[in-house]
Amino acid sequence: MPGRRLVLGEGPEHAARQLAMMCALLAVLSLAESLLSPDGRRWALPAVGAVSAGLAAVAWWSPWPRYGPRAPLVLCVPLLGVLCACAWAFAGYGVGTAPFLMLLAAWAGLHYTARTALALGPFLLLVYLPPRIAVGQTPVMLASAALFVCMSAGVGVLIARQVAYHRRAREEVRRMERWRAALTATLAHDVRSPLTSVQFAVECLADGEDDLPPARREAIAATALRQVNRIRRLAAGLLDADRVDAGGLRLDLETVDVRSLAEEIAGYLNAPVAVEVPEGLTVRADPERLEQILVNLATNSIRHGAPPIVISARRQGRAVSVCVRDHGSGVPEDKREMLFSRFSSADTSPDSVGLGLWITQELARAHGGAVSYAPADPGSRFTVTLPGDGPVPAERADERAAR
User: Fold this and answer.
1) How far apart are CA 366 and CA 298, in angstroms?
2) Region Disordered: which residues (predicted)?
3) C-alpha of 397 from chain center
4) What pTM does this model have?
5) Residue spans per domain, the chain
6) Measured CA distances, 90 to 80, 97, 121, 123, 252 (Å)
7) 10-residue block means of pLDDT along the chain (403 residues)?
8) Class for domain 254-402, per CATH?
9) Which residues 6+ apart lie within 8 Å of 3 measured at CB?
């Protein structure tokens, strides 16, 4: 097994060691064939073997990770030179020149891109065809040789495409494993805490019966409801994340009055939120999803920022920008780059799994918009840009006011 780990794998070190094995095989075959070749050709084979052995040593023991992932490709130049000399000395027949050319193309496809394997094709032709032309082989044999080289390059391209496919599939599996591990951690940690609070509240209400004062009973019930809402938000975030991954997020678009929606949201948040949105400003959006966007941003500002929290909006050409600003310390620079990533470490509140800002970004994109962060000096400013809509008709505005 240790020997396999030295040769099999990915990265420049493994690529170089596989090429070293190829060079070592070429050296052994050259020395073996030198015993059977005619006297006039024996001088070339030991030289080919010696150079191949030297290349094998360089390829095996050089510190390739220091030089970059594509550094082993440099070894193709001397190896092609050795194969070219061998082909000239033996008119393409000596020590299995053709199999080594195919092995080299397969090696390039195994460790590098399809373009690399394809770019190697002309060099293989330069190694394989001129010696055959020089000895006057028939056009049919030359065409067969050219076809063989093209097939070798094609094998390299096919291997490169297949390897790339498997790498993408493996990365997808790893991503899903990370998602599953994060989900398990969420269920084990973030859901357990509110469930404990709900259990405590229910036990207090069950044991207290009529002895509890009404105010105390209401406080316990309110605590239980807050924790239930917390679990509901966690579940909604996880479900939305799953829908985004599966491409099953659907929007019911309609004209939404931004001021009415912002005032409704400010009315049920657990902190004072000011609304500075002009009358009649509308967007084309899914009302529930837009509410989720603003609630996510507002609760994020409440958790991590400082009052006053302000929801404002303005028209920018044919789009509408909705801003949620707080007056806290802002987001540290080292966390801004990953702010909207899934399971962002910038969101460290106890009832969050780091999905809120990521879901907000995905919902904005689903609407054809975007979300961004900017320091507000002091505080943070999150801006959602969505497609605008015409002004709300008077009768529709009266209906919403009545509701």
Assistant:
1) 20
2) 374-403
3) 44
4) 0.54
5) 2-172, 191-246, 254-402
6) 15, 9, 21, 19, 74
7) 62 90 87 65 72 90 88 90 79 65 92 92 88 83 88 93 91 77 63 73 70 74 75 67 64 88 82 88 87 85 84 89 88 77 51 64 86 86 83 43 39
8) alpha beta
9) none
